[in-house]
Design goal:
By secondary structure, the protein is of the alpha+beta class. It has 5 helices and 4 strands; from the N terminus they run ααββββααα. The protein is globular, with a radius of gyration of 14 Å.
C-alpha cells in the first residue's frame, strides 16, 4: 500500500468516525503533506518525538523560515466546532486560537468542514 493509499484509508476512517482518536491518526499520517491556508500560503507540519520516543501532541507548522507550534489542546478546541461538517466562513469561526488559519486548511483537507463557494475557488486552483 502506498503512502497516499494509507492516508486515504485513514482519512476515510476519520470521516466515518469523526472523533479525537481518528483525528490524531490523520494528524500523524499527514505529516509533511503540503497544505494551504485560505490565502494560498503553503505549509506543512511535523510532530516531534519526546524523550521516551513517542510523538508529542504538538504540531510544528513549517512556514517560511520559522516554525510555529500548535498545541493539541488548540486542535481539539477547533475540532469541537466541526461536528456535522459545517460550512465555516472563515478561520476565526473555529475559535480564537493561535494558528487557526492552519487548522482551517487542515480541517478542510480532512473533510471536517466545508467552505463557502467564494472560498472554494481559492482551494481548487
Amino acid at each position: 500500500m502506498t503512502e497516499t493509499e494509507k492516508r486515504e484509508e485513514i482519512l476515510a476512517t476519520l470521516q466515518r468516525n469523526p472523533d479525537p482518536e481518528h483525528l490524531w491518526e490523520c494528524i500523524i499520517a499527514f505529516q509533511d503533506y503540503h497544505f494551504e491556508t485560505i490565502s494560498g500560503l503553503p505549509f506543512t507540519y511535523q510532530l516531534k518525538r519526546g524523550r521516551n520516543g513517542e510523538l508529542t501532541k504538538e504540531l510544528w507548522i513549517d512556514r517560511r523560515k520559522n516554525s510555529k507550534s500548535l498545541a493539541w489542546s488548540s486542535v481539539l478546541k477547533a475540532f469541537e466546532k466541526t461536528e456535522g461538517r459545517p460550512v465555516v466562513s472563515r478561520p476565526k469561526a473555529l475559535g480564537d486560537i493561535r494558528g487557526v488559519s492552519y487548522l482551517y486548511g487542515i480541517f478542510y483537507k480532512f473533510g471536517l468542514i466545508d467552505v463557502p463557494d467564494d472560498l472554494l475557488k481559492k482551494y481548487q486552483k
